[in-house]
Specification:
This protein has 153 residues and is α+β, with helices and mostly antiparallel strands. 39% of the residues lie in helices and 18% in strands. It has helices at 7-18, 24-31, 35-47, 80-92, 117-130; strands at residues 67-74, 96-101, 108-114, 135-140. One of its GO terms (molecular function) is sequence-specific DNA binding.
Length: 153
Amino acid sequence: MSFQPDEIDRKILIELQRDAGRSLDDIAKAVGSSKTPVWNRIRKMRERGIIGPQTVILDAEALGFEACFFVLIRTSAHEADWQAKFLATLRDRPEVQEAHRLAGDIDYILKVRVRNARAYDAFYQALIAEVRVQSVTALLSMEEIKSTVALPL
């Protein structure tokens, strides 16, 4: 059963997506409520799994991770054991920020963040040493135009 937020829940979620590190007082003021009801709503949304763990968004380029590649993978292997090994390999690689299984000609797309092209090549070599794939195409992002994890509430 999907969660249907009311207007106050929606406002709270929008504020948390903007900056979850703000004080509860600031969030309550922004949504036009008081601290205790806002805290209770946040607690209930956490219990239901609507709000996950709080993290910090780091500046990849400032930390030296200047290359972002989108990696398109085709495979002729679709057996359960191959898929389990492939997914475990992706989970174990910290360079993989996102991984999606697709419909269509491409089986998987990965978002891979590395320091440079040599680091991508090391990632690529390790990946193909771990699992058999039919083809890999790497696309270097020249410029990040928009990046968000916020949902359009």
